[in-house]
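Annex B. Sample input.
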Amino acid sequence: MMNKIEEAIIYAAVMHQGKVRKLGSTPYILHPLEVAQILSTMTSDQDIITAGILHDIVEDTDGTLQEIEKRFGERVAFLVSSESENQYPDESRTDSWKRRKEESLKVLKNTDDQGVRMLWLADKLANMRSLAGGYSEYGERLWENFHQHDPEMHHWYYQTIAEQLELSLNKTGAFKEFIKHINFIWPGSFDSEKARYRKYREVSVEGCRRIGRGAKGDVYRYDDELIIKVYNQNNTYRDVEQEIAMARKAFIMGVPTAISFGIVSVGEKYGAMYELVDAETISACIARDPGQMEVYAKMMAELARTIHGTEVTAEDSFPSAMDRVRDYVEGGIGREDAALAGKVMALLEALPDTGALLHGDFHTNNVFLQRGEPLLIDMDRLSAGHPIVELSDLIYFYVILGEEDPAVVERFMGFSYDAARRFMHLFLKHYLGTEDEDRLNEVAEKASLIGYSRLIRKIRKQSNPSDTDHILVCQCVERITELTDRLDSLAF
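Annex B, continued. Sample output.
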């Protein structure tokens, strides 16, 4: 009796009969067999190897996932589906190329299934072997054979896959070979050391106290001297390297910043280690001693002025904060009321170019207090722009997110919503150097305009917004309408 793999070989040979590869005109069936062979170097799981044999059935033949599930099981069908791109019959393969690749990459980015990752690596390694051979023979003429003629788009695609697979599969020979071929066609894509065996230091945060939470991950007290930031699973090694590089740049410019001394692996996530003896977040300090709220608000205000007082130029290569604010407007209000979005953008574009450095994720969870001195973490969103953008982030975190559900802010900050609102008021008082309530309210309203725009964008990014979300969007639009009618400038 045939086993699953043998049956899959016969089924695939029949389904791919008569088809040939783009390069070399070899029978197409050799590609899925090569994928299966690569998989066999990483696993003995018959379902994963079977999926390798069948991975192109749905895309390139009349076969269906339903038929694969019936013949080979639900697990095999699921794995094949992860490698099957969406089809757009009304568009040419050239026109839909980037959209198809972006959609399929989201599947890889969001998976926690090692079988999916292995299947992707095996398929793409087989492709890269073919590309490397073709590049050796044809050079840049190689790309004329494909729907996508731009070699940099292929570079983006394969490099992104490698970055997504690195942590979980960097110890395999298949990954090392994959990196080698990418570096052959596009020299310098990866550190050459990554094509050799490398084992990251593996640590566990089991039993460690979580002392901070941000958009990109959680921070834990590892021991008396060390903390570890554990990044969300969709952050690659390159993301962590980039954040550490940005932190060093900010430190050199005089911004008090915690610098990581090493990247580690925490399960299937990356971590960055910091030496912060007995340090704790300012959020934790406020939660422990609310009576010292004003002390911490003043400290945060002084830190913000230090950051914003750092002038940057084009040579410093910081991105523009206006890029993400524009995304808030276009992806949020722009989908609700184009005319209103135009008014908001007019106010934003009228802001003077201050050349100020912005942290981009400035709040009390991202500032540690060590021996009475504040130190920043989460430096990956450093940018250049007007300080009103940074103030809008603060209003968003401490006020806007809790207006409909105070528990959202309380869970994030670790102290009450009333305390969060009070902190925001005290921060503005010390940041602006005034106790004039009219002045404080004016700046808060200007920051809120951007903050409400950000909330709409956040909701619109959800795949299935609830009825409550729709109501909240309408309320935000009303508030933005009211603010644009009253404000003639966002500068302060």
